[in-house]
Each structure stands twice: as structure tokens, then as C-alpha cells.
Hints:
18 strands, single chain
Amino acid sequence: xxxxxxxxxxxxxxxxxxxxxxxxxxxxxxxxxxxxxxxxxxxxxxxxxxxxxxxxxxxxxxxxxxxxxxxxxxxxxxxxxxxxxxxxxxxxxxxxxxxxxxxxxxxxxxxxxxxxxxxxxxxxxxxxxxxxxxxxxxxxxxxxxxxxxxxxxxxxxxxxxxxxxxxxxxxxxxxxxxxxxxxxxxxxxxxxxxxxxxxxxxxxxxxxxxxxxxxxxxxxxxxxxxxxxxxxxxxxxxxxxxxxxxxxxxxxxxxxxxxxxxxxxxxxxxxxxxxxxxxxxxxxxxxxxxxxxxxxxxxxxxxxxxxxxxxxxxxxxxxxxxxxxxxxxxxxxxxxxxxxxxxxxxxxxxxxxxxxxxxxxxxxxxxxxxxxxxxxxxxxxxxxxxxxxxxxxxxxxxxxxxxxxxxxxxxxxxxxxxxxxxxxxxxxxxxxxxxxxxxxxxxxxxxxxxxxxxxxxxxxxxxxxxxxxxxxxxxxxxxxxxxxxxxxxxxxxxxxxxxxxxxx
Length: 504
């Protein structure tokens, strides 16, 4: 009897010790080791593969552009509603990197650098030599800027229109796709005497317009995307995540300043807190901190549109066998509820206070031209914009911004930035060719910048990190269960010994 009780007590004590030890090791020690391993894999340490991938993405991104052809151009010039047909995608391989200019203990300074290469196979049957009839964005941009800045000179400008715009002297023009996007449309090539005076004004204006550049022959070149092709962007200062992994990739300064200066309430002296619109929030969207909390939003600063974008968790997804969480920017994006995004500079269809309606954002302070950004096909936008043209079909899954992230590492496994660029076609005082136009927010094109991890990288992600997590999730409960079984055995032995003792 005594030997049985001793055996039971010994087994009980051993089981209890094993339960306590396996619980401590399994739920505290091992997860901490695994967590530290993940942190060391993802933060931007010197001489690591992660830092090298951060400097130069090892695979090209997909960059596609879809244009809106105006099929009833002649009627629109007489006041008809524009009928649009989406043309494309025109797809480019986007080689994306970061030019590092400085590195300190927990800070990294760099400029984004992208190079675009037309992909004829992915674009087929479309090519850069296609002609499309689109709203003439250079024409409207120059005239609208001039009408605001030098209204008294509009009669002079009207006399010089042929010299400025050449064979594209019209509100709607047939334009070669490659010229519009990257190669450039020439203005002021042979302006003449009167045109030369007007082109001098335009050259002054072009200094603040990112889509225009003065050439060596004194002509002016306009393109939608040329300013981004193989040209370093703004200087970003970000945290490397060494001191705090939750700060990994977080942008702390843009061009040396801790806040933006593009939107209403900007404080050039930095004497107070920035307005919501001028806050620098988030990363450059290529990297996020590990251990994503889906209760919290994520932010990404997009320097092309001069603002941060808030993304919120939507639902769980899977990509090539990797469990992920989807974040997106929905109707709250471009809702204009934060009044500081209202510049009250862009004339067109607006609210009574001059601000644009839901779903549209002025880009004047960002790009120097009266361009308006929206979601593709006016997704989430006020119906007055959508009903101003024919042929749009907004679809949430096809047209909103989204990111799929592996939540433990913060790795972006799939995602798409999307944005549509529009211009108000409207009558402009002193320019007869525009007098019959409806005031319409007219889409020019929409852009999708997409990323999808290749199978090679998803396999590496699964084998290097996720398999370890899965193994821990399996083995720890098994170890605790086996320890509990030993404890239960000891209890059973003691109970049996006590039962026999009572019977005796």
C-alpha cells in the first residue's frame, strides 16, 4: 500500500512539475524565442538579406494604366455628355528600389527610384503606338492655371493657341499612348512672336508643375508619368525597427521635415501640431512592422499624391498557401470629411464652400496643376461626378486600394495601389473653343501598381518562419497535454490506493 501511495505521489509531483515547466517553456519561453527570431529576420539590420531586399526589390512590380477614350468627341465639344470606353491595360514592369543616402543606428534615409519598362506581351493587343481620344489634360491644365494666375492675358493666350499646342489645340485630342504616358507631348515648339510671349508664361508655370519640363530647345514637354521614370523621388527618413520593431519602416520625415506642407493649415514654421491632412503617418507601403494587430489601422504615405492613406482590416485571406489579412481603404478614403484636404482652388462641380464632393481630391498643391484624383470609375464618389459621364462601372474589389499581409512578419504578399486622374472640362473665359463644354469631371486614366510575391518567396516565407510557428503551435499543446496525462496518472494512482485502503 505504501509503495503504491509513494508511486502515486511521485507521479503526481512529477506530473505537476512537468505541467508547470512545459507551460512556462511552451507558452512563455519558446514563443519569446520565436518572436525574437521573427523580429531579427524583418528589421533592417546591416548586412542582412532583408536590408538588401529593402534596397532593391528582387522582382518587378506590375504597373498598368487604363485610359478613357471619349467616343463622342465632336458632340462633347457642343455640350454633350462624354461617352467613355476604357482602353487597356497598358502594362509595364516596374523595377523598384530605394537609393540609400544615409544610415544611422535606427534611422535610414533614402529616395524611392522606379524604372518602367513596357511589357508588350502583358499589354497585348494594346501598344504604346495606339491613338486614343482623351481629354487634353495639358490643354486644360495650362489654360486653367493661366486663367487663375494671369486672367488679363487670356486674350493673348487665345491668339497663341496654335503655336502653343500645335495639332493638339483642342479640349479633346487624339494622342499616342506612349507620348501621353512617358515619352512626352511637346508644347511651344514653334510658337511665333505672340506665342513666344505666352510660352514664356507657361515656362514660368511649369517650374511648379511636376508633369512639365522645359527642354534644351526651349520647348515644354508634358507627360503623365515621365517625372517618375528613373528619377529619384523625395527624401524619406524612416525607422529601421532596431529600437522598437513596431516602428519598422515608419516615416519620420519627408525632405527633412516632420510634417507635410501641401494641405490647408500647413505651418511652415513648425510651431504647432500639424493638421490631420499634413501628418506623416505610416510607411512607404513596401514594409510594415511584424505582429499586425487587426484592431488597429495601418497607414502608408504616398508621395505621388502627397498624403497618407489609412487602411483598415477587412477579413482573412490566403495567398499561395500563406494565411494573410486583408487591409483596404474604402469609403472613408477621399471622403473630404477632414476639411484640410479642401484647397478651394479647383473650379468645377463643388460644394457650396468650394470643396470637392465626396470621392474626389484636389491635386493642385501636390502636382502644381488642376488635376483631381479619385478612385477608378468614381468608386465611392458622389453620384454627380459618376453621372457626369457615361460608361463607368465601379467595382469595389477591382478598383479600391488593398494590401494582403502575413500578420506575423508584416510581409506584403499581395496588394494594389489604385488611383484615377481626372480634369474638369469646363468653359474658360477668353477661350472660345471651350465655351460649349459642360462642366464635367472627366476621367483621363487610372493606374494600378500591383505586387504579388512569387512562389519562391512565399515558399521561403512558409519554410523559414511560418513552419516554425506551426510546429510550435502543435508541439507546445502536445507537451502540455502529455505532462497533464502524467499528472492525471498520479492522481488516479493515489485515488485507487485510497479506495483500496478504505475497503480494507
